From TrEMBL:
It comes from Streptomyces crystallinus. Residues 252-263 have a biased composition (Low complexity). InterPro entries: C5-Methyltransferase, C5_MeTfrase, SAM-dependent_MTases_sf. The keyword Transferase applies. This is DNA (cytosine-5-)-methyltransferase. The keyword Endoplasmic reticulum does not apply. It comes from the Bacteria. One of its GO terms (biological process) is methylation.
Length: 393
């Protein structure tokens, strides 16, 4: 997106293959074992995004139990003491200590006055660790900012919150100005306004608009893509999208309509001895099957997408628009990897490698490219306009 090439160190085989297919130079390795000398004197910036599984709400969160050990590892590595083997033996989750690994690189690079800038990302619970990094980096002459940013504030159709660290030797480190808000904000004397958060319908080209649109078959959405689940049994959707089949209960009929900014499905259910009663179903995305799962309508951004072993639990589901709506709802439909990638702001034709589960894993653990572009552009000297929608093209 920004026209800059990097060198990636990555453990996952399929993530490496995807990066190679996308033209990115990648070394498949364990970052904890890779030597430091190849980077000395050659590194301008360091991007670190340690695995989040040990800390994420989607996992067992043993990283929180291991947190004192990780803090100790960071403190030791900052002094050039390598106590990782001893500390790793005490960790409940072996991935926890990878959050301290960037300090091994930073300490070695700092001996050469490098890198010029640093950008790091993790789940919000890692923010105290980023603050420890910040305190150390400031003693080395860096300007540092740490905080939690919402990806939706930067044009990502997902309210993904992440702990960010930005550091620089040459400029004041600060978060990029947000370009979007939950509610649109007009321009003012204090600066440009902000657009409304990007909805899932907009990102997927499903055409949730402010006016009704006709029911169409797959491929006819006004946003350039298919309507989410058009009329009929959904067999019209291509097999490549792995949609499955909705089996309506006769004499039920359905029609898709996007009304008032919400994409809906109208179902007329006929009960014996009663007049036909229309039921309007609203499509939502549920991000997992837990009781506290985030459920969002199509005219909103998605909740945080995470997959792994829960890849099959992120589903589109229909909800009635009134509490007394009769009739049988369509069955839930699993999100596709292509849809998940678009909701992370990857291009529609991004060359994902691997099977469905492997792709879901890559999508769920990635930093949304549009957010990353906003974070990195100032440090790379690349102009990035607030309305630069070419990033998602």
């Amino acid at each position: 997106m920004l026209g800059i090439r990097d060198v990636g160190l990555e453990w996952d085989e399929w993530a490496c293959k995807t990066r190679a297919a996308a033209g990115q130079l990648t070394i498949r390795t364990d970052v904890a074992a890779y030597p430091l000398w190849p980077f000395l004197g050659r590194t301008t910036g360091l991007i670190a995004s340690p695995p989040c599984q040990a800390w994420s709400m989607a996992g067992k969160r043993l990283g929180l139990v291991d947190q004192p050990l990780v803090h100790q590892a960071v403190a030791d590595l900052a002094q050039g003491r390598d106590t990782r083997e001893k500390l790793l033996a005490a960790c409940r989750d072996e991935r926890s200590l990878l959050a301290a690994e960037p300090m091994r690189y930073l300490h070695a690079l700092n001996q050469r006055g490098q890198p010029e800038w640093v950008a790091m990302e993790e789940v919000p619970d890692v923010l105290p660790l980023w603050r420890q990094y910040a305190a150390i980096l400031r003693t080395w002459g860096y300007s540092v900012w740490t905080g939690v940013l919402n990806a939706a504030d930067y044009g990502v159709p997902q309210t993904r919150r992440r702990a960010i660290l930005l550091a620089s030797r040459t400029r004041t480190a600060e978060p990029p100005p947000p370009t979007h808000a939950k509610l649109a904000e007009p321009d003012s004397l204090f600066g440009p306004g902000r657009a409304r958060w990007v909805s899932m319908a907009e990102a997927l080209g499903w055409g949730a608009t402010d006016r009704p649109v006709p029911t169409v078959c797959a491929g006819g959405g006004p946003g350039g893509g298919p309507e989410p689940f058009p009329s009929g049994s959904r067999k019209t959707l291509s097999n490549a999208r792995d949609r499955g089949t909705w089996k309506p209960h006769p004499p039920t009929t359905s029609a898709a309509a996007a009304t008032g900014g919400r994409t809906q499905k109208t179902i007329t259910s006929q009960h014996p001895g009663a007049q036909a009663t229309p039921t309007v179903w609203r499509w939502t995305l549920r991000n997992n099957n837990q009781a506290n799962a985030t459920v969002r309508t199509l005219d909103e951004p998605a909740g945080t997408l995470f997959f792994g072993h829960r890849a099959n639990e992120c589903v589109w589901q229909a909800e009635p628009t009134t509490a007394t709506s009769p009739g049988a709802a369509p069955d839930p439909i699993r999100i596709t990897a292509a849809e998940a990638g678009l909701l992370q702001t990857f291009p529609a034709d991004y060359p994902w490698q691997g099977n469905k589960g492997q792709i879901f894993s890559q999508v769920g653990t990635a930093v949304p490219p549009r957010l990353a572009a906003h974070l990195l552009a100032p440090h790379l000297g690349v102009p990035l306009r607030p309305d630069d929608f070419t990033l998602a093209a």
